[in-house]
Every structure is written in C-alpha cells, then in structure tokens.
Write the structure tokens for this entry.
Amino acid sequence: MAHVELRDIYKIFGPRPASVLARVRAGEDKARILRETGHTPALRGVDLSVEPSEMFMVMGLSGCGKSTLIRHVNRLVEPTAGQVLIGGEDILAYDDARLRRLRTHTVAMVFQRFGLMPHKTVIENAAYGLKIRGMGRDERREVARGWLDRVGLKGYEDSLPRNLSGGMRQRVGIARALATDPEILLLDEPFSALDPLIRRDMHRVLVELQRELAKTILFITHDLEEALKLGDRIAMLRDGRVEQVATPRELVERPANDYVAAFVESVGEKISL
Ligand SMILES: Nc1ncnc2c1ncn2[C@@H]1O[C@H](COP(=O)(O)OP(=O)(O)O)[C@@H](O)[C@H]1O
Ligand SMILES: [Mg+2]
C-alpha cells in the first residue's frame, strides 16, 4: 500500500473556492480565472502516491504549487477537492485529537528558512517537537542531543541559531524533525538557501541518514539536478499539474512531453546517472 497518497487534489485560493471549481476542472486558463474571479488555482487534479521508505521528489518552478502540495500531507492546507490518505487512512476525516497526533508523531517538516526559534538554544530547538508532545525536560534533551550528534553538531547544543552557519542551522532543522521519530518527513526546499558546496554536504548527510532510517520522504525542490541526484522518483509539477512521475533515469531517457524534455536538456551533460 502507498504510504502517502494524494487523489485528484484541487486547491484553489480565494474567497469562494468551490464557486470556481467547475471552471478549474474544465481546464480553464489559470490567469484568466484569476483575472475574472480573483481566485488562484494552485493545484489541479494532482494524483501522487509515495511508497514506504521512498525518497520522492516534487520538482517545479517557483509558484507551481509545490509548497501547497506538501502542506496537504499534514493538513496545513486543506484541499478544495480530492483526498489525502496516509497509510490508507483518510486524514481529512480526522478529528482534532487525531490531527494533532498526525502532526506530532506521524509527520515532521523541514523548512527552507530553517524555522528555528531565535531565542532558544540549538538543543531546545531540536527538542521542541518532543516538548509539545509532553516529554519531560531531561528525556527530551537526551534524545535531541543524540540527533544533534548524528547530524554533526556535537558541541553546539548551547549555541543560539544566529551563531550558526546556514548549513548548521538546517542540520538543527533536520535533527528537530528526526527527534520525533516520524514515519514521514516533509522537506520543502530544505537546501535551497544554502551555497552549492554546503548543499552537497547536506545531500550526503541526508543520504546517509536515509540509508539507515528508511523514512518515507517527500522532498520539494526547484533544482532538477538535486531531484535527479537524490530521488527514487520525481514528480514534475507545472502550474499545479503533474506532468510526469518517473525515476531519474526514466525522466532523462523518456521525458513525457516537451516541457519535461526542455528541463532535462537544460541540465544535460552535467549529470550522470
Ligand atoms: N495562502 C495563499 N493565498 C493565496 N494564494 C496563494 C496562497 N499560497 C499560495 N498561493 C498561490 O498559489 C500558487 C502556488 O504557490 P506555492 O504552492 O507557494 O508555490 P511554490 O511552492 O511552488 O513556489 C501561487 O500562485 C501562489 O501565489
Ligand atoms: Mg514553495
């Protein structure tokens, strides 16, 4: 069974999304709908399924709906239409208690801008998910310390985020996410704010962790090279629609259409699979 499944998801932003759903379904132009109704169709009929322990990449240009898509998985965004299933369960039917459990135990998120609390130390940040779960201070700090070690931040426990480089801050973000031992990791352009060399370090950190932890990972990127390098599979998103879902090799060797082909050509010989 798929671990995470999005079924025919539509997401329209604006005051009365349901009122324009039919027009969006009919495939009307996005710019025209915005102009005439003030609504933004962000996702249009998205179907995706992510297998257990898969590193699944969602790749697309800025504004194509990537953040909107990933936020459906922890219900930070609710769809206008469609279904979201985790382990076969319809999470849109969850009550508050079940939703809270989803967010504190099942799913954890890593953000592009790290999302650390500036006045809290590194270890307090890393332990935060456990704190909201109600774990005691000593215990949660011990768990957090272990994860900070794992991401190479031993000795920085009592530092403040502002005294860390971008790469180190994102290591804290990863430690914080992993400390809660989630089944599913959501990474929304986690390395986009980092310099290329640091990004490469972070790729290594993630690959090594994943080899051992085998989490189900949904990873958002606008960088095709990153998607090809890290992904088991890649979904190419364009203007809120999925253009192709494929392994890196398939994507390069058999792009589904001209749009995907143009993308693949743009990275061209730089990659070797
Ligand atoms: N809360 C919101 N209200 C209105 N429009 C939004 C909102 N969030 C996103 N959008 C719009 O939805 C589209 C997709 O945005 P987003 O998912 O953030 O794209 P990406 O992460 O790929 O850059 C964009 O046109 C964006 O302006
Ligand atoms: Mg985004």
About this structure: The mean pLDDT is 96.
